[in-house]
Structure formats: C-alpha cells, structure tokens
Amino acid sequence: MIDGSMVFTKEEGWKEVKVARIFKETDCKRVEGKSSYIRHSQYLGLLTDSKTFTGQLDVLMDNYKLKEEQLIIVSDGAPWIKNYAGDAYGKAMSILDYYHAAEYLHQFKDEAFKDKEVGKKWAEEQSELLLEGEVAAVIKNIAQIAEENNCGKAAATISNYYTSNLNRMDYKTYKTIGAGIIGSGAIESAHRTLIQSRCKQSGQVWSIDGLQNMLNLRTVYQNNDLPKIRAISNKQAA
C-alpha cells in the first residue's frame, strides 16, 4: 500500500510525507469476533520526491523475492503512484482504494441532491454497485442524476475519475484474491503510527531535516529493526 500524509514544516509549509506499507497475505490475521490485524509489516516513510521514494521502495520490494504477478498494490488515484505501479510492476494487480472511490460518490451527492436523505440513499446504492464491480452502471447513473439535477460539472469530475481508473475497480474479484483487502485501512493505520502520533501533535512545526530524522527513527521502530542495529553497533565496537 502507498499513500501520502501532509506535515507542516518551517521552511516550506505543508509537505507530503510519502508512506508505504508492505505485508504478506500470510501476515493478515482474522479472529472471529475481533478486529482483523496484520502481524508484521515493513514500513517506509520519506519526505522526498516520488523518484527517490520509489527507488527506496524498490530496494525493500527486492527483499521479498516476489514475481510481479504475486504483487497487489492498493492506493488512491494519485498519478505518481498509479504511474509507478504501471511502470515498475506492470504485471502486478493495482487496486484503487475502495473507500477513496466511495468518497467521490459522497462528494458528488452533496452537490447533486438538495434532499440530503435521498442523496445519502442514492450514494449508498452506488457504493454497493461499486463493490459488485458495476462501475459502468454507476457512471451511467451519475449521468442520469446530472441530467435531472443540472450538475454536469460535478458529474464530469467523478465520471472522468472512475473512467481513468476503470481497470483498477473490479472490487468483486479483488475481494476473493489474496487477503481480500480493497481499502486503505492498513495504510491509514500506518499514517497514524508512523507519522501522526509523533509528528502531528498540537502546535508542532518541524524543520525538514528534523522531520526526516524523526521519520527515520519511527520507521526503524515500526520495522522492529532496533535489534539489528544494536547487533551491528556491538559488532563494530568489538
């Protein structure tokens, strides 16, 4: 999973921290009656450009010794992520985060419907269609609402977004593959644990260097790499 999270810096204001979370299907655990969890993940968090970030991500991915066909990449519609997935892992399965796709529906209904309850019901019905992989039907329904409610601009925005990501929205199939993860819960959790719980506290303003140094420490901690670093330090000291 790949995403970005904004943190405020002294030098340049809001800056995007690019984040990746890598995990295996076998590390996804489901316990009846309890929340699902991921037993082990590999994290990467960098305040940098997409080229540098994806270069570091490739190094981590190489450690897993996977064939491209075994890889599933879940992300939102950010062009840099979409392009990276297509260029670097063309045979991998790329999935548009379902909750991000559904969020577009709720933004559209706020503009398209004067009656909030009618709009809410309509959005819920379209969300169910998305889960069934009926994206074409949703686009058709959006066009119908646009004609009835005179909201062509808003309809064009969501329709173009869905059309450009059509090959990443077969959620009915995705739910049966691997761990069946189609949403961003795991990467949102990564944002909280890796970044927000330490770097987005009330009143915090970071220097760019200070923020990256803290991200490095957080990443080492979340990856459980401290024992490895201690072992290397002890070996060097000896």
- The amount of beta strand, in percent, is 5-15%
Q: How much helix, percentage-wise, in residues?
A: 40-55%
The dominant shape is globular
CATH class group of the largest domain: Alpha Beta
Q: What CATH architecture of the largest domain would you give?
A: 2-Layer Sandwich
- Taking Cα atoms only, what radius of gyration do you get, to the nearest Å? 20 Å
CATH fold-level topology of the largest domain? Nucleotidyltransferase, domain 5
The end-to-end span amounts to 40 Å
Query: Biggest sheet, open or closed, and with what strands and sense?
Result: 3 strands, antiparallel
Briefly note the structural class of the backbone: alpha+beta
Number of self-contained structural domains: 2
Using DSSP, what is the number of strands? Answer: 7
Trace the largest sheet across and list its strands. Answer: 1-2-5
Order of helices and strands: EEEEEHEHEHHHHHHHH
- Helix segment count? 10
Can you give the mean pLDDT? 91
Q: Show unreliable segments.
A: none
